[in-house]
Amino acid sequence: MIQIKQIAAAVIMASVVMTAAAATMSVQVKDAPVRATPSFVGQVVGSFAYGDQVEVQQTQGAWSKVARAGVSGWMHTSALSSKKIVLAAGQEQAKVAASGDELALAGKGFNSDVEAQFKAGHKDIDFTWINRMEKIRIPATEMQAFLKDGDVTPKEGGAK
Amino acid sequence: MNMRHSGIPATQGKSTTDYTDFTDIRIRYDIVKSFHISAIRAIRGKIIFVFNCLIRNFTIQILCVLALASLPACETMDTLSEVGAGVAVATGVATPQQGESIKKAGSAVGKTFEAITPEQEYYIGRTVGAVVLNQYKPLNNEAANHYLNVLGQTLTQFSDKPETFGGYHFLVMETEDVNAFSAPGGLIFISRGMIRCCQNEDALAAVLAHEIGHVELQHGLQAINKSRVTSALTILATESAKSFGGQELAQLTEAFEGSITDITSTMMNNGYSRGFERQADRAAVTILQRSGYDPNGLIAMLTQMKKQLKPGGHDFAKTHPSPDSRIEDIVKWVGAAKPVVSPAARQARFQAAAGKI
Fold first, then answer.
1. Inter-chain touch A100–B159, beta carbons under 8 Å
2. Per-residue pLDDT reduced to its tens digit, B283-305
3. Alpha-carbon distance A46 to nearest alpha carbon in chain B (angstroms)
4. A88-98: per-residue pLDDT in tens?
5. Closest chain B C-alpha to A100 CA, distance in angstroms
6. What residues does B9 pair with on adjacent strands?
7. Which one, out of A126, A160, B129, B253, has a CA that is 20 to 30 A from the CA of A15?
């Protein structure tokens, strides 16, 4: 009986740890909008930046309700990572950096320095249009109007 | 790692038994790999000790030992040893501290392309895109590119991966070749020739959705030779405690260049596997169905493409399975193929935009 209790305690401890680990996530995209409802048509109430750690309060399909510094709302899960993302690499952070399951070190690996080095060796490769196309960002309101004007009716819920 | 998606030959997914049979290891592996095994044994011993303290039940202990014994029995271990060897080469002799680095690096490296962060995927995609545009001139038509982005970025909202590090962006290539490319992270390029295969917005939506599918499923990253990722992460494992010096940057750039070549040669010359194309078509049908576009648009586009492709051409004919075989699959997913009927307003705006391309 004592052994059963011990096993049960160990299982509960393990599940508590898993829940706690899942509660905090990091924003893994440059700039992620936070919405009032779990949908891309939801009103944008704020945005979080790359590396921001957010508390996940609840999930609904592929959407997570997150909060940080007084801002709360819904983000698509593809914008979030369970890894902690460290922006400024200090010695201590770097020691655990190689443990990729736990922590991603922003700016390491293939980064702007490597791109610059690549450009120096390939002067014929032009990035002008890449920079130009990256600036094309269509606002959610324009997307909604586009769907409506074209008589395109999404299935309820949109992105899964 | 999901080998089904990896594109890595089965022979590279090294057998698991190499590491479960320890008696054979010293014969077959060098000193660094042996050190690495010792480290795993030590860690495993510590974990077993903790479990012993928690659970004083012999049967449970046996089960735990069996479970832990299976821990190294995964495909990640082969890559792990490669990194171990790389670290040893870089540093001379493997010290216990370096062994710890080897151990930590292993969990990241073993996943190969999955170990590439969204930020790194973004930088790879930028350069892949620039290489594509080195071969195909962009169409300098703001209205056309805006229309393509409104349609494309709207569709991404219905994919399983609507958010990427730098977002999805679309561009028309000024060529009559029937072609479309998607760089990792979401830069997507569609040729004028491809747009001319589309007779309505639903068909164009299908082309874009197929490319979004390649991005979502990270097919580009999976074209990267495993050794490049291993090489890059070895540098990270040994040098992450300090800023990169010239030598490390040069090595990383070499791995980067190799990765770009792997992706562009696959995308532009050899083509993805039949399986990857099928997955992208499946993703496209899903996106179209969720968004409200007619998935028959994909069939319509392929039917038209079949008429326009020149056998032996340097475009889609070279890098994609035959339209007929793709249509056969798509019909199974959407039911019977039906002609696309676009509402008047949708057709009018498509014709207005496509007419200028």
1. no
2. 999 999 999 999 999 999 999 98
3. 16
4. 554 444 444 44
5. 4
6. none
7. A160
Who contacts B224 (Cβ-Cβ below 8 Å, separation ≥6)? B112, B113, B116, B258, B259, B262, B263
d(CA B92, CA B244): 19
Q: Is the dihedral of CA B197, B202, B208, B209 positive or negative?
A: negative
Q: Which of B86, B116, B113 is nearest to B101 (CA)?
A: B86
Number of compact structural domains in chain A: 1
Whether A16 is in a domain gets the answer no
Q: Which two tokens stand for residue B144?
A: 């056309």
pLDDT at B165 over 50: yes
Q: Give the residue from B33, B15, B21 showing the smallest Cα distance to B75.
A: B15
Cβ–Cβ of B249/A153 closer than 8 Å?
no
Q: Count how many pairs of residues, chain A against chain B, have C-beta atoms within 8 Å.
A: 208
Q: Quick check: B201 and A104 CB within 8 A?
A: no
Is residue A132 domain-resident?
yes
What pLDDT score does B245 carry?
65
Question: In this predicted model, what pLDDT tens digit does every residue of B311-322 receive, in sequence order?
Answer: 767 677 777 788
**Domain hosting residue A113, numbered range:** 23-149
Calculate how close chain B gets to A153, using CA atoms only, in Å.
5
Give dist(CA B183, CA B130) in Å, integer: 9
Q: Does B83 touch chain A (CB under 8 A)?
A: no
- Residue A15 within any structural domain of the chain: no
Contacts of B327 (CB under 8 A, 6+ apart): B299, B302, B303, B337
Cβ–Cβ below 8 Å for B165 and A29: yes
Judge whether A32 lies within some domain. yes
- Select from B120, B253, B346 the Cβ nearest to the Cβ of A150: B346
A86 vs A99: CA distance, rounded Å: 13
Nearest partner of A150 among B284, B153, B348, judged by Cα? B348
For B253, name the nearest residue in chain A, comparing CA atoms only. A114
- CATH code of the domain covering residue A136: 2.30.30.40
Residue pair B205/B152 in contact by the 8 Å Cβ criterion:
no
* B354 interface with A at CB cutoff 8 Å: no
